[in-house]
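Aim 2 progress update. The chain analyzed this quarter is reproduced below.
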Amino acid sequence: MPSGRNLRIIVIVAAIAVMLIIFRASLPWLVRDYLNDQMADMGAYSGHVSEVEINLWRGASTVQELQFTKISANFPVPLLRVDSVDLALSCSALLSGAVVAEIEFYRPELNFVDDEELGGQTGSGTNWQEALQELVPIEINRLGIHDGTIHFRNFNSEPAVDLVLSDLNGAIDNISNVDRSEGAHPAAMRFTGIMLEDAETLLEGQLDPLGDFRDFSFQMKITGIDLRHLNTLSEAYANFDFESGHGDFVLELEARNGVLAGYAKPLLDNVTILDLEGDLEQGVLSAAWEAVVAGLGQLFRNQPENRIASRIEIRGNVDQQDISGWQAFMSILRNAFVDAYEATFEPKA
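Predicted structure tokens:
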């Protein structure tokens, strides 16, 4: 029989053990509720997670079913939906005395919406860099994406638009090596994906995703585009469609101290826009408009190669008031695509 003193020690140790077990068992729910409270009001958007798993021995956690939705509108899709997010502490960094995390997004789906009835959904209205650093108040070294999808949607256009970049895989590495005290030294970024069902897409460059986006380089190359996969976009926004054609698209951007320079270059082969017999069935005005667009295409066409090509120079400044650096960067990308599209196909006043 243990003495009274030893018995008290055993009882205290057992009580502490039970409390630790209860705390460990309830920790995932505590973290989940904390995250949901923190993400309930993030400017124009709110976030929610359904479940959190924690592995203390590995210094890792997994968030299940993360999504961000716009507060002011009832969109059919959230801005972002992620099946799971893994956050793990870097063992090599821990050995050197630093607390550095690696974040992996599995099957994320990002939905940009351009819709007159519903309004826009572009991510503006929230400082995402600041929100991420508040939610994960430790140094982040890697942001990885596995089997991601990006949509550009318009639910109420005629026809409805849903352009997709799928099979998105890649990462931004060495983020923790970025020295923000003496100017930006961007981290390396490389992603691959499939645009418009079968066009191989490469995105690479250097940027600081947690910085102000005043210094970066960005390159995108899309090869093997079947232009018929753009028909919902061209019909909804310009009232014509492609009967045939394929091509490539190249975009290069660079910013230094907020000053932006670059170009967008569509290169299209064997483009047929007008099929009078088929298009006349849709009405004389529709056929007439497509005839105008087809004629404009001839202005850009290299006749021996039956090729449409143009180079759109991009100049500007990313320092804009009332929006974050990330929003300015996204606006630059959007404008580059719109300018390239209009320069190639749209009539000018």
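The two ends are 99 Å apart (CA to CA). The longest helix spans residues 4-39. These observations will guide the mutagenesis experiments scheduled for the next reporting period.
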